[in-house]
Amino acid sequence: MGTKRIAVQEGLHEEAKLLRVNGYEVTTVDNATEPIDVIVYSNKNTNYLAHNTTGKLGIESYNKFVKMINVEEVGREGLISVIEEIQ
């Protein structure tokens, strides 16, 4: 467990804390300076509005094919197991 670098959407504080406790390196898409393995996001997270009003993400080329996990689909309790299943 815990060898992946995970970008977590702003506002998903409990998910980020869970990942850190389980040994993952946690960052955001905007702050990632090295390749990330997974992006965790939520469609229901309205606590933080996007800073980017263009609708486009400026993702570095080394992060263009990253797995994305919608936390509503897997649930917080299933997040770790889904991440561990990713090759």
Q: Work out the number of β strands.
A: 4
Share of helix among residues? 10-25%
Q: From the alpha-carbon coordinates, what is the Rg to the nearest angstrom? A: 12 Å
Largest sheet: 4 strands, parallel
Oligomer: single chain
Mean pLDDT: 80
Distance between the termini: 12 Å
Helix segment count?
3
Describe the global form: globular
Structural class determined from secondary elements? alpha/beta
Strand content: 15-25%
Helix-strand topology string: EHEEEHH
Trace the largest sheet across and list its strands: 2-1-3-4
| Uncertain ranges | none
The domain tally reads 1
InterPro entries: UPF0180
Pfam families: UPF0180
Description:
Pfam families: UPF0180. There is one protein chain. This protein is of the alpha/beta class. It has one domain. 23% of the residues lie in helices and 17% in strands. The two termini are 12 Å apart.
Topology:
Elements: E1 5-8, H1 13-21, E2 25-27, E3 38-41, E4 67-70, H2 71-74, H3 79-85
Essential attributes:
single chain; 87 residues; alpha/beta; globular
Task: Provide a concise account of the structure shown.
The chain has 87 residues and is α/β, with parallel strands linked by helices.
